[in-house]
Structure prediction request, 718 residues.
Amino acid sequence: TRETTYNFNAGPSALPTVVLERAQAQLLDFEGNGMSIMEMSHRGKVYEAVHNAAIERMRKLYNIPEDYEVIFMQGGASLQFSMIPMNFLSEGETAGYVMSGSWSQKALKEAKMQGVAYEVASSKDNQFKNIPMDWNVQDNTRYIHMTSNNTIYGTQFKDIPEVNVPLIADMSSDIMSKPVDVSKFAMIYAGAQKNLGPSGVTVVIVKKDFLETAKEENPTVLQYKTHADSNSLYHTPPTFGIYMLGEVLKWIEEQGGLEAVDRQNEMKAGLIYDVIDASEGFYYGHADKDSRSLMNITFRVADEALEKQFLAEAAEAGFVGLNGHRSVGGCRASAYNAVPVAACEALATFMKEFQAKHA
Amino acid sequence: TRETTYNFNAGPSALPTVVLERAQAQLLDFEGNGMSIMEMSHRGKVYEAVHNAAIERMRKLYNIPEDYEVIFMQGGASLQFSMIPMNFLSEGETAGYVMSGSWSQKALKEAKMQGVAYEVASSKDNQFKNIPMDWNVQDNTRYIHMTSNNTIYGTQFKDIPEVNVPLIADMSSDIMSKPVDVSKFAMIYAGAQKNLGPSGVTVVIVKKDFLETAKEENPTVLQYKTHADSNSLYHTPPTFGIYMLGEVLKWIEEQGGLEAVDRQNEMKAGLIYDVIDASEGFYYGHADKDSRSLMNITFRVADEALEKQFLAEAAEAGFVGLNGHRSVGGCRASAYNAVPVAACEALATFMKEFQAKHA
Ligand SMILES: Cc1ncc(COP(=O)(O)O)c(C=O)c1O
Ligand SMILES: Cc1ncc(COP(=O)(O)O)c(C=O)c1O
Ligand SMILES: [Mg+2]
Ligand SMILES: [Mg+2]
Ligand SMILES: [Mg+2]
Ligand SMILES: [Mg+2]
Prediction:
């Protein structure tokens, strides 16, 4: 049952129970219209209201300035890795990438397939344990790309360096987990499947004057302008996903907004980091302390054989998704917005008891 | 309520009630796993089984030969319009497009943005009332693109001309509505939101030896090969949409498979075409009789003022989605697989009664 299952999946991941309950109640008949929201035309009044309300909630919660567009797309963050250089990188220009892990590496690889790009900074030599804050920006840099939270290594930006070129952030794994000064960014993007809803929706927040500098010879649906100019209705959007995203945003409002959610996230991650730090080396964290993510808590059990047992016993006890990413191993607890405090308390307790038994 | 609502939406459109009921029952706890299918990792065993079962069902229902790949993607049919020439059209080659309406026009436009393309045939001069069967294939044609069912004008291919170049079909609005000889096509694609599930999933069925001729310099997620080589799990797929698609395929099996669904579709469309044909000109169909679609029944009320009243009274009576596409006006009843016989009977009766009152 949901009560005995603690969902720490890295993405797709936990959704608020009340959001699922509301979706369930309306699944066959949305607001008395005799149809599911999934069965409605994206050009009809009912869906359009849902669509526009989701955009408005996002604007309000993130305090998005008027001169930014909010766009819903398909294709995940991975398509953004390609669309960004397609739209913004021309001959004679270069793009700077801040390397904080595998997602930045993938983003850089796609940029290099299409033009010239370089590393502004990297923590690779430190096994991506820290967020690289010392940036080397070259002349003629069209934009700088950063990953605000590294889902795999469990690191997260605390502050954003001041730069005077357009800054683009992949916020896939910490979007809407805390207040952000959107005006610092030319563009923010994220797959919805961690903090915002089911997979299949990508959110793009982009400054209008930056958008206007995009190239216009790209395929129609691969131009941001196409989606911005049509209120994300150029073609059929992923309507159910956008509906769910709107419901998740409503839930964030009900929690008291992003300040409240942020406090809650600090508390939740703190519960687990505290166990790690008090374990006298039985557990150790992967990330350097000043780069620790509140979203993805990556750690190891020092004794490798015990680590296997830890993961096996945790799975038995109802903890889901605690295996580290297949590329790095170890353990990872993803404590996104919708993961309840009680789940983090349960994990902290389980970790302490496991240590007591085996230390 | 669902009982008093007749959903004739063109897409997104009606889903089988039993599919929605099953999804509803499991929405918070999928098969006893304590989580929604939406909250599960796409790398986990539970989701992978759902994913693979959907592919298997598609293979079985469509009798897809071993040497074809079945791929799930994002981006709708519109992204396919661009990906096809990106992947398959090189310098020195040309691509032929069969023009049966606005969707073919959009597909051709994207091809021309990227290379050389021409019209193999067109019914434009006949207001797209018929399916053009007389094809003029030029030398050096890389592929021919056709739209198997025109959603807007309500026309549908009955037979496929024999050609000796790779044939690609946009089947967005008639996929899985009847048996198809897949081996006649190099590639078939469709957005899911008409016959297969919610919007946000694109199905691509592609012959392996054709796939191998694709260019390899495209952005990673814009190469078919990327998705084929990773069983559509290169990055996060739209998991809930694929789950729903699998449930719709299961429902098709329960109906007796594609032959049975085809018979049902003929019967359903026949109910409405019969009223049109017996109306002595009160109603008239848009499509030529031999090109009529079983999926989208396009018609007019001869008297324009009465047509407005017809649409208004129909809406009052619980009929949804009967307005023609905003680009052409008139009336359109989309009777996809999941639209029940009872809905078509109700519409036929309503049309007869409306005529009796106003003729
Ligand atoms: C930071 C980050 N960027 C990009 C991605 C890729 O997103 P998608 O699978 O939606 O393409 C992920 C997925 O986990 C991620 O965590
Ligand atoms: C035949 C056909 N092709 C393509 C499309 C566009 O599909 P999408 O909106 O998923 O991009 C449609 C949508 O109605 C269609 O009917
Ligand atoms: Mg992932
Ligand atoms: Mg990274
Ligand atoms: Mg449409
Ligand atoms: Mg067409």
